[in-house]
Design brief:
By secondary structure, this protein is mainly alpha-helical. The chain has 2 domains: 64 residues; 31 residues, no CATH class. It has 4 helices and no strands. The chain is elongated, with a radius of gyration of 23 Å.
Length: 96
């Protein structure tokens, strides 16, 4: 669990409470701010979950055995060229 997960959960809980209290007392501004905080907290929590997934994926990638990589490339050179082109395209799009 990341810091974003924890902060997002707290923010969404506070926002939900603020929204309920705002609706109960008839304060539309408070209810709207509560709804905003609730949605922002959920988004921040989702960001934390995404960070966790990336970290877990990175750990999985580091355990892949690449000892036969050269053999695979020699057997399927066009697949290797396609993967390299795709990686280049993604890096090019990110660096814009």
């Amino acid at each position: 669990m990341t810091k974003d997960n924890l902060e997002g959960s707290v923010r969404s809980a506070i926002g939900q409470g603020e929204k309920i209290i705002g609706q109960a007392v008839g304060d539309k501004a408070m209810a709207a701010q509560g709804a905003y905080d609730y949605a922002a907290g959920k988004a921040q929590s989702a960001l934390g979950s995404a960070k966790d997934a990336v970290n877990e994926g990175g750990n999985a990638v580091s355990t892949i055995d690449l000892s036969d990589l050269e053999t695979r490339i020699k057997k399927n050179p066009w697949a290797a060229v396609g993967v390299a082109a795709l990686i280049g395209l993604v890096i090019g799009m990110i660096s814009r």
